[in-house]
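Supplementary Text 2. Reproducibility record for the structural model of the 276-residue chain.

All settings were left at their defaults, and a single model was retained for analysis rather than an ensemble. We include the record here because the model underlies the residue-level annotations in Supplementary Table 4.
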Amino acid sequence: MQTLGLVGPDAAALAERLVPRLDGRVATVEPLPDRGEDASRPAAPGLAPGSAAAGAFGVGPDGSWVGAGEDRSLADTLDTLAPEYDYALLVGFPEADVPAVVVGGDEGDDSPTGEVLGRVPDAGGADLGDLTERLDATEPHVTLESLVRRVKASPRAERAGAIATFTGRVRAKDDDGDPRTTALAFETYEGVADDRMETIRTELTDRAGVEEVLLHHRTGVVPDGEDIVFVVVLAGHRGEAFRAVEDGINRLKDEVPIFKKETTVEDEFWVHDRDG
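Retained model, structure tokens:
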């Protein structure tokens, strides 16, 4: 799922213009007002004040639905949207670490945390074609669930009786006495890592009994506890699926040029320098 932040006075208007130009299912996310200390106000439309329910949903016979709750962060929301949508437009979240466009206002106002793809004076002044190309070139928001959904949608899925997955995550420490790792940062040679992963994916998919393989490795800074890498295999039987998952992650680590910098509470270093 491609994710874009829109910040500034004219952000909502640009979102309205951009949605029909995007090729796929689009979700928009907007901030709700802070209840502050007034617990009598509902956390979200549709959730009654004082309700003991953590969430409330309505579903219509035509597939329409609405939902409300008070137990979800922006990050949780993006993870929920990723399997279902191709794009997410975050309107009015300058703190979100996602690619962003500033719409209107003075430079410095609503300065976003993520990479700034552009600044436009107003919604009407945005080049939607150029913006769409820039958005499609950014790293997508990928979750294990979104990859599993993709392999289930494969035209070869009817031949498969197994899905096996591997998830690698940032480990805070190896032993109790180790300094805590707060984050890992990953860098790649542009294009080379993608080509190597595609070669691995193709060779694994060509195996007898393997129907589909997906690999994804995040780049940039990944905090401790978050997911780094996924391998998902769709296969005829569990044996082929498990073998392909294990070979997939082993080959990815051995053959794909991905460089890792570790930040601990005491130090910061490139892992290949320490290993060497």
